[in-house]
Specification:
This protein is α/β, with parallel strands linked by helices and 245 residues long. It contains eight helices and eight strands. Helix 5 (143-156) crosses helix 8 (214-224).
Length: 245
């Protein structure tokens, strides 16, 4: 599944004290393998987003990937969308941005595009957009700033423009939440992570990744001004939502 990728061993060795998770150099180098082995149906979600993005992307507009990491989503989208669209990738990690630029160059990516290093906690200028993606990124934005960011996204989208929001979520009920998380860790074990890796990563993410419930995310999207919201993907504690202005 992850052939040709640098294997994620960031949490393999026991750490005296587990520091907060950072999207720095070490993580950027192994990030593509980390996502494939840590996010259920990641490749299928990417495929679905590209398929649906083609339903909403309009000529002459901009497509934004907020929290673009190494550029995987932009590369997936590229062959599915008309050529006269501009891509904008935003990420706050210089190491991710560097990796993204390397990957786009290696793939011979020739579409008009801009890769911007910026902190989404400060808000984001979105302009003439037909498609915006927040794939596993809003969960890293401070809760205080999430409403503002979504409102800016909605404002910057053209009429009938679309947002894809993929998030880790908390179960609506604590009983299911516990089960979902257990089965999620089973999946990580099946994908080759040890118990130590799983528990050290959980600790590292504790104060950094703040998940909401699916219905809380839905409410937030409606509050931001989206008229239509639906769920296109759900697997235990992960969800993909699509929202149209
Ligand atoms: C889980 S990754 C996103 C994965 C990516 N969208 C994909 O599907 O390949 C989260 C990304 O959000 C970025 N990020 C986290 N906090 C951010 C912030 N405040 N502003 C901008 N980017 C941020 C991280 O650097 C990281 O690259």
């Amino acid at each position: 599944m992850s052939m040709g990728l640098v294997r994620d061993e960031v949490f393999r060795e026991r750490q005296e004290q587990v520091a907060d998770f950072r999207f720095g150099h070490e993580v950027a180098q192994v990030f593509d393998d980390m996502l494939l082995r840590s996010v259920p149906f990641y490749a299928e979600m990417q495929r679905m987003i590209a398929e649906m993005a083609a339903d909403f992307a309009t000529s002459g507009s901009n497509v934004y990937d907020l929290g673009c990491s190494t550029g995987t989503t932009l590369l997936h989208l590229h062959p599915h969308l008309p050529p006269d669209l501009r891509f904008v990738g935003v990420d706050s990690s210089p190491e991710m941005i560097e990796k993204c630029r390397q990957k786009l160059a290696a793939a011979g990516f020739d579409r008009a595009h801009e890769i911007i290093c910026a902190d989404l906690n400060q808000g984001c200028r979105v302009d003439n957009a037909s498609v915006v993606m927040l794939v596993l990124t809003l969960q890293f934005i401070r809760p205080l700033y999430r409403d503002r960011l979504l409102a800016q996204v909605c404002q910057g989208l053209n009429e009938n423009g679309c947002l894809f929001l993929v998030e880790k979520v908390i179960g609506e009920d604590s009983l299911f939440n516990r089960l979902f998380i257990d089965h999620y860790y089973d999946m990580k074990r099946r994908n080759g992570y040890s118990q130590l890796e799983i528990s050290q990563k959980r600790e590292a993410l504790e104060n950094v990744l703040v998940p909401y419930k699916l219905l809380e995310n839905r409410e937030m999207l409606l509050r931001a001004g989206f008229r239509h919201v639906d769920v296109f993907f759900k697997w235990y504690n992960f969800t993909g939502m699509v929202a149209v202005k």
